[in-house]
Structures are given as structure tokens and as C-alpha cells.
Amino acid sequence: MSYRYKIATIFLLGFFIDCINIFMSAIALPDIAQVFSTSQSMVAWVANGYILGLVLIMPISLWLAGRFGNQKLLCFSMLLFSISALLCGLSDSIYSLIFWRFIQGISGGLLIPVGQALVFALFPNKERHRISTMIMTVALIAPAFSPALGGMIIDSLSWRWVFYANLPFSLLAAALAWLWINNSERQRREKPDVFGLLLVTVSLLLLLLSFSLYNDYHNLSLAIGSLFFSAIIFAFYIKYAQKCAAPILNFQLLRNSNLRNAFIVYYAVPGVFTGVNLLNIFNLQTNLHFNAGQTGMFMLLYAAGALVSMVSGGYLYHHIGKKRLFFIGILLHSIGIALLFTVSSRIDLIQLIIAYLLMGAGGGIAANTAQISSLLDFSGKDLLQGSVLWNINRQVAFSVGTVVLISIFSLVSTQSDLLRYQYTFFIAAILSLLSLIFILREKSA
User: Fold this and answer.
1) Per residue in 229-285, pLDDT tens?
2) Integer angstrom CA distances of residue 56 from 61, 63, 210, 307, 322
3) 97 touches 46 (CB < 8 A)
4) 176 vs 167: CA distance, rounded Å
């Protein structure tokens, strides 16, 4: 195996671990909520804590790689990931679980941008669609199989083993990083803007807290206050970053239409789907009486739809064009979500099957197109900054999609709990479709 494919293997393994962390743990959330007697909104922080850790560390990961070397950084990050995964499984309260998920996010966030930057540097632009398709194959297939596996683990053992199951993969990634990555010398890179990093992290934390303050404590004034301060801090960061020589997150890169559209699509498709999937996990187990294993199996259908998209993704991108692929993908994805509105009992199995197939096919087309096009116009320093910005956005989209849809679910008022889920899914389908307004405005295909 050539050196560049060894690096790609390590990155894809780390990316796989990141993906299964979000979706395998999601299937365990109903059991975690029951064990710790907590709400959907609070248990969502099991995912949010992980994402906050990623956001905190990703922007300085490239600087850390230059200071300590790629080999040591990636190896030790996976060892820390293994320790935190073990402690997640041993947690005796929802708060300790959230804390160790935060640490797990910090360790996982070291591998993703460094690994992607290394891989993209080794694959020239003409070959980048190949590695981008491999990345999106992992991003869509791993989450599809992990809930089914996680559900079987939960039914056979307990939710704690969902976290223990990470250990073989993270330890393997640590070993491969030590054995395969060249022991490069330290590189001098600009010292990261810690103040800017704190501004971005606090802004995101306040944004997520605003939804929790409303959903868990029904305190509208505190929720609005938290949202207001989040916006103020983010606006202050934008002004601050314009004057900063090396901003921690270069949002000026969003002037590039390819990256900007990729951002929008990720909120509209993977972001919305993450929220829909979390709510439907609760819906399937609470209202339709599927067990965890059966609930996880529906994601295999999502995988089947996504697989078709992955096989044809690179070919279609060059022959149909980005804009048409976005339109087709978002439309199919939205129709699949809308079909969940029609599911009211276990006998509506056909609608469930078609819904997950369509969400998988549409999600695969849209997300793969976004991955291929997002960093296509960048190189050098802009590529490194774009990689960090893109990967942070990918994680934040998952978290924002979840808290927004949980809030919509909380706002929907009906006598039937099942109807609340159905109406929320219908609204989610509309939100996904709205992204087409921005995509179709682009002049170039």
C-alpha cells in the first residue's frame, strides 16, 4: 500500500469512529434518558457535549500538529479517545456522561482536520473527487450500520456497551498512526487565536443552551437572552476576525459559492436528518413499540439508498452538474421525511421502508455533492483553513439540526404524542426544501 493510501486509511478510520459515535450513541438515547430520568432535550447533550469538544479543539489542531508532529498528535488523540469512551460507559449520571463526551470530542477533533488536510494534500485536485467519495461513503454508510449494531448491543447487553464498542477501532487507529505516519519534524505555525476560539465556542454554547433553557425549563426570557448574547458574541467575533491577522475561523472563505452552498446543504440535509432520526428513534420505540435493535435496522435501509448514491456520485457530478444534483438530492430527502408524516402504526411498514430509502438516496446525493465541491477552489493555507471550517460546520449542523427539531417538537401542541412527531416531521421536510431557494439562485451549475 502506498504512503498516501495509508494516510487515507488512518483518516477514514478516524472519520468512521467519529460517525459511529454520533449515530450509534443516538440509538441508546431512549435507554439513557430512562436510566437517568431525563428529557429528550437534556439527553441530546450527550451528542452536543461531543460536538462542543470538537469545535473547541479543531481550530487549533493544525497548530498542535505543527508543534508536536502528526504522528504523535494523531496517535495520542486516539489513545485519549479510548480512555474517554471507557469512562463514558462507566458514567453514573447524565452530567458525568456529558463531561466525558466533551473530552471524547476534544480527542476526536484532533484527528479529523489534520487527517483531512494530509489526505487532500496527497491527492491533487483532479483526484480529489475520488477521496471525497470515499469520505462520504464512510459518512453515510457507517452511520447507517452503526445504529443497527448499536441496537443489538443494547438489547443484548446495555447502552454502556455502545461506548465500549468504540475501543477496538480507536486503539487500532492509534496503532496505525504510530506505525504508518512519518515521524515528521515539528513545524513552526502561527500561534492560534485563543481569544477568537473562546468567542466562537461561547457563542455556540449559548446558542445550544438557549434551546435547552426553553425545552427543559420552559423559561422563554432566559432562552431569548441566551440566544441574544450568542448572536452578539458571534457578531463581535466577525468584526474582530476582520482585523485579526490569523483568525481562528476564517469566515471570509464563505464568499466562495461552492463552500457557502455546501454549508447550506449540510444544515438542510444531514443536519435536518440528524434531528429527524433522533426524534424518530424515540417515536419508533415509544409509540410504535419497536425495540432498539429493530429501530436500528431502519438505518440499513438508509444505507441502501445512500450506497446507490455513493456508487454513482462521482460520475453524476461531472455529467449532471452540481446544481441539478443538489436539487434532486434535497427533493428526494424531503419527500422521504414527509412520508414519515403518514406513519401511524407498525402496519405502515411500507411507508417507513420507502421513507428511509428516499432519505438515504437524497441524503447521499446532496451530501456527497457538498463534500466534493466544498473545498474544490482552495489550496495551500486556504485549504487548511477551509478544512477546519468545513469540518466544524459538519459537526455543528448535526447539533443545530437536533436542537431545532426538538424545539419544534416541544412547540407542537396536540392531544396525541404520535401526532406531535408527525407534524414535526412534516415541518422538517419543508425546512429541508427551503434550502433550494439559495441553491437555485446560483448562476453557475
Assistant:
1) 999 999 999 999 888 877 878 888 888 888 889 999 999 998 999 899 889 998 998
2) 10, 13, 19, 32, 32
3) yes
4) 14
In the chain, the amino acid numbered 116 is Q
**How many CB atoms lie under 10 A from the CB of residue 208?**
22
Q: Is 0.85 surpassed by the pTM of this model?
A: no
Q: What is the grid cell recorded at 181?
A: 505516519
Contacts of 104 (CB under 8 A, 6+ apart): 21, 50, 53, 81, 84, 85, 88
Helices 417-439, 380-411: inter-axial angle, 10-degree rounding: 150
Distance CA 58, CA 78 (A): 14
CB contact at 8 A, 143 and 299: yes
Q: Is 391 strand, coil or helix?
A: helix
Residues belonging to the chain = 445
The b-or-e profile of 260-297 (16+ CB within 10 A means b, else e) is ebbbbbbbbbbbbbbbbbbbbbbbbbebbebebbbbbb
